[in-house]
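Box 3.1 — From sequence to structure: Protein kinase domain-containing protein
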Amino acid sequence: MISRYSNLLFLVIILIILHLHGCCARKSKSNNDQCTSSCGDIHNISYPFRLNTDPTTCGNQNLQLVCENNLTVVYLDSAKYYVLSINYNNFTIRIVDALIQKDNCSSFPRHSLNLFRDQYWATPYLWYYWPGEAKYYAEYYKSIVLVNCEHRILDSRLYVDTHPCINSTYYSGYWYIMLRSRSTYVRDLVDSCRVGQIVMASFLPKEAMDISYLDVHRIMSYGFEMSWFEACCDNYEENRCNLDIANITENCYDTRVTIYYAVKMLNMSKGNGRDFINEVATIGRIRHINVVRLVGFYAEKSKRALVYDFMSNGSLEKYIFSEERSNLITIEKMYEISLGVARGIDYLHRGCHMKILHFDIKPHNILLDENFLPKISDFGLAKLYSTDESIVCLTAARGTMGYMAPELIYKNIGGISHKADVYSFGILLMEMVGRRKHLNAFAAHVSQVYFPTWVYEQFNKGKDMELGDNVSEEESTMTKKMALVALWCIQLEPIYRPSMHEVIEMLEGEFENLKLPPKPSLVPQDKRKEDVGINNGSSEPITIPGDCIKSESESESISLLMNNVN
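Predicted structure (token representation):
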């Protein structure tokens, strides 16, 4: 079950597309060019900021700063922060907790990121909603975790002692800095300890044996940067804000790093938002190198958007079906991609405390990063089930025609299980081998129409697959291995398909150890057009009404998120 605190982290995420920022900034700034204020060391307070003493026409009312005792102050959720600098060139403002004094290591921050309670700490971005309806702040942050313990920790590489700066004379218990890594969880805390404060910082201390609390305090006293953006989607062309999938880069500015995101805007006219809720509920709990990472989401009225890590090489579809030589990738790289996708699906099936069935594995949903590392994406049709359930229930069959497992449509073939994803992966694998759609409606001969049948006949007759010139023996073996595994995956009856764990073993094992499966059946492929009435050539996901009740785990996660989004 997704905890409310975990969901709160996602609910504060606000997406503002970078190239839209300029359209609003130019429009609004024209009326504020003459407004510039100063307070203490901050001499350049201008649009979009304003001092509370400025005329009402200056800056934005929601981005108001206050001058107190010749110090520039900003309040976030009633917490007081000092403004240390404003950089209008890269849209950053650096602030620090008002209680942290640079030359006094006993000064202690009092404002904590409570949203991180019981949350996996490796999430590296937080988007912060600035009070008001019009404008938003985006925070690029890293965090320092202060831990309070009942007893002194004598020996641990995870902790940095704050003594003598902070001692039990003024603060209860013993305070430590907990050094974190991507593998650190809240459950790694010593039993007698709890998370006391989570403080934002611009950079983290290196995990070294000789680090001291003075080093950490200097980092905290430097403060942290926030980047501001404007929500101008309402003032932009409606069709530009209502894209189905828009891989638009967003730039989150920091003085040391530039980060890009992929933004998926959802067209809410197509449904009531259940797919959106489902995707957030599903992918929000996943941490795997072969699954795209959800940075967060935005939900306001009819607008829905998801933010992912930006995948610079786009989707696998571009490299499978493209005829452009610039999009060609080697057989070895294609094999590595297939293995990565298999590992990602296996993780979904076995690696989480809930079993996650994707139901829409296809080239369009496999994204590739700058190193062509594959990432499974688009969990809009995914479902969560207990790991004890071998056969699952669906309210409707779901998937993309041509990639859907036959049991999703034909009930007499077998029950619906994780083997549905195995079938889809088999079709994907077959397309990676042939660099073509597995079903070719324009083929001159029926034997060429269904590519897997042709592949089976090649193996059955002991013929080599035609792979072109300059293909090494190792590459030939990789291709044949992928093709043979694909034939196993697309068996008509689920019982004869391997699990994804077995698929990985087959791909990593020796080709000589693989046996030829039964001949794949063409019948379900022929009947789908007639029975469902949908063009097999379409890559759009569909749902076909069914008569099964949702699983308890699915209903629980969706209703919980609905309460938080509405």
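Summary of the box: The longest strand covers residues 79-87.
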